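W.,

You were right to be curious about this one. When I first looked at the sequence I had no strong expectations either way, so I just let the prediction run and decided to look at it fresh. Below is the sequence, 276 residues in total, followed by the output.
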Amino acid sequence: MELKIINKKHKEDKKKIKIKNVEVGGDALVVFAGPCAVENRQQIMETAEAVKTFGGQILRGGAFKPRTSPYSFQGLGEEGLKLLKEAGEKYDMPIVSEVMDTREVEMVCQYVDIIQIGSRNMQNFSLLREIGKIKKPIMLKRGMAASIEEWLMAAEYIASEGNEEIILCERGIRTFETYTRNTLDLSVVPLVRQLSSLPIIVDPSHGTGIKELIAPMSLASIAAGAHGIMVEIHPKPQHALSDGKQSLHFEEFNHLMKSVRRLHEYLKKQLVMNNE
């Protein structure tokens, strides 16, 4: 695998990405949270308040939704981005949202702090080259059937155009198993940290599709060495227009945050003790 830019040249070679007051890839655990899709102003404002209150650092929300069915809710488009930006500014959080088309990159950049490339576009090479030319952090999700090499090479496409501010996101891969939405591949976390200097986070919401699995898989992700997690939350998951079955309500998110913080602090202490 010929990684010329994002390869890990030295043991201590770690990319740290600064987004406003948040650093991804450092010692702190970073939690990205928000709804799968921005639906209306009240929904995103309530959700942003919950993310901030319970300790999340980055607000996520989809404005352009690549759905399996063309008849499913496709997102609010630019109006959704405006609402997401308003919520991020009110609660002082960076925001991340997906771009799907090269023609929309300039417009999306006006609103978001982090540009997400979703699973379906991981090997959209024209889009990868286009976002490689901009000066904003990129979150690159793993393709639903992508090998580790294909994923890292997609990141290399972005970096080869000049943008090395890339956050990798494991979101599960498609296997023969159908009980869960995807098969969450946590082995990729330590592997990516060995092979690449880029930070890696895990999305257990899409990775499992079952909200009862989000907490244990979040803890497992952190134990495996992830720099952060990304989870979907919603004020009324049962009425969500997208991915309600894998969305936590606010109190569940509060419990999750307490658990992941405890584990992260414990692991930091163990690391210090082992280095003494």
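Here's what jumped out at me. The mean pLDDT is 95. And, maybe more interesting for your project: The CA atoms of residues 11 and 194 lie 8 Å apart.

Coffee later to discuss?

I.
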